[in-house]
Specification:
The chain has six helices and eight strands; from the N terminus they run E-H-H-E-E-E-E-E-E-E-H-H-H-H. It has 199 residues and is of the alpha+beta class.
Length: 199
């Protein structure tokens, strides 16, 4: 039985995966390409108690991301953003903020994959004679063409990926479905080409 896809990458894993410095990762996060997250125990922010997964501001922890590697491995957060919100909250208790380690900073796997697709970093799936796959990719391509021909493109690529995953489930009674990332790799070139035509 296959494990489900992973949920998070650490900054060090993303750095190794992309062949870049964590200073680059901090810069991309600062410009909104993805978010850097961590988990915290309950803290007070004014009248609110905040806990669990939160968003970090890389610029407020800048010494941790020194390109030369001389920075500390922990920093102090005095301001946090609860996941799913746009506002930043000042930590009022503990008054000095809370410490966070570089090793405990994460990026959602879905944001890692989206970043890779956006920057043409998606690993190509082998194809051609001699390459076998447990999945009916040719059948999926035909289903994809029919879906687009009959109903056009959905609003987002994620919807199209979900529909193709449902197609695999229907064909195999839910027994043999590739993960959404594998489907996305195959759909992305088609999605981009059709979106370019729409533009």
């Amino acid at each position: 039985m296959a494990l489900p896809p992973r949920v998070f990458f650490t900054l060090h894993e993303a750095s190794a995966r992309w062949g870049c410095n964590i200073a680059d990762i901090a810069g991309w996060a600062h410009t909104g390409r993805f978010r850097i997250l961590t988990g915290i125990g309950p803290v007070r922010c004014g009248e609110e108690i905040i806990a669990d997964m939160i968003v970090l501001s890389p610029m407020e922890l800048l010494p941790l991301f020194r390109r030369c590697g001389t920075g500390p491995s922990e920093g102090v957060m005095r301001r946090i953003q609860p996941l799913g919100r746009q506002d930043w909250l000042l930590i009022t208790d503990p008054a000095g903020g809370i410490s966070v380690g570089l090793a405990d900073m994460l990026i959602l796997a879905e944001e890692v994959h989206a970043f890779e697709e956006e920057n043409d970093m998606v690993r190509r799936t082998p194809s051609g004679p001699g390459v076998t796959s447990p999945y009916d990719w040719e059948g999926m391509t035909i289903a994809l063409i029919l879906r687009i021909h009959d109903h056009g493109l959905p609003a987002t690529q994620a919807e199209l990926v979900a529909e193709m995953q449902e197609w695999f489930a229907d064909q195999t009674d839910g027994k043999k479905m590739p993960d959404s990332r594998s489907i996305r790799r195959r759909i992305t070139p088609i999605w981009r080409a059709l979106r370019r035509e729409d533009a």
